[in-house]
Write a structure and sequence with these properties.
single chain, about 240 residues, alpha/beta, Arc Repressor Mutant, subunit A, 9 helices, about 20% strand
């Protein structure tokens, strides 16, 4: 089944252009011109991806993304932010409220399609876990079920986005080995254009917050990167 994409932009010409190019690649699309309309459409039919402009006439794109991430039923919907604001602080704000990626206007159609493909690929094909035969990895309080695309901590599900789940499984399957920010960008994000190492830090921070008691399993090596601890007992000492 073709992926369904919600385009949220108050510029009709741009929205129509985006819809045309996405549909030419086999996707189905629907367009919303306001944040309120976008939230209503998401609830009516859960999209596979939301292309979300930051500057909207009512709610900002940041607020729309924040509301999606605080709705248990919609928290894992991938979001690609679109904006004419290219300052680093604006990109970080978008990522901190839960966006999976950030694309600054003006952008080429080719780059947009590459970003869309990368996000959708991550959402349907998460990274393999250590116990590939069972598809389930148990690590202390953390249980990761690859087939169900689900992670629980102490029996409580962590509401991870597709990108966060991929980041977690990548670190977990390489436990005990240091992963540089650059390596994580290549292996988890897939596309490095316009993505900074601050992006990795922001997503690891969000991942830790959602993992709760299991957050300590992810170590920070200052100036180097991150490492998933080799054993749960090592984190519990």
């Amino acid at each position: 089944m073709a992926a369904h994409i919600l385009i949220v932009d108050d510029e009709p010409d741009l929205a129509a252009t985006l819809a045309y190019n996405l549909e030419s690649q086999g996707y189905t699309t629907v367009v919303a011109g306001t944040g309120a309309a976008a939230l209503e459409l998401v609830r009516q039919r859960r999209p596979d991806l939301v292309l979300l402009d930051v500057m909207l006439p009512d709610l900002s794109g940041l607020e729309v993304c924040r509301r999606l991430r605080h709705d248990a039923a919609l928290a894992t919907v991938p979001v690609l932010m679109l904006t004419a604001r290219g300052e680093e602080i604006d990109r970080v704000l978008g990522l901190e409220v839960g966006a999976d990626d950030y694309l600054v206007k003006p952008f080429s159609v080719r780059e947009l399609l590459l970003r869309v493909q990368a996000i959708l690929r991550r959402s349907v094909a998460p990274a393999a876990t250590v116990e590939s035969t069972a598809n389930v990895t148990r690590f202390g309080a953390l249980v990761v079920d690859e087939a169900a695309h689900r992670a629980t901590v102490g029996g409580v599900e962590a509401p991870l986005t597709a990108l966060e789940f991929r980041l977690l499984t990548t670190l977990l399957e390489r436990r005990g080995r240091v992963q540089t920010r650059e390596r994580l960008l290549d292996d988890v994000w897939g596309i490095t254009a316009d993505v900074t190492t601050r992006t990795v830090d922001t997503h690891v921070k969000r991942l830790r917050e959602k993992l709760g008691a299991a957050a300590e399993y992810i170590e920070t090596l200052r100036g180097v990167g991150y490492r998933f601890r080799e054993s749960p007992a090592q984190a519990d000492r």
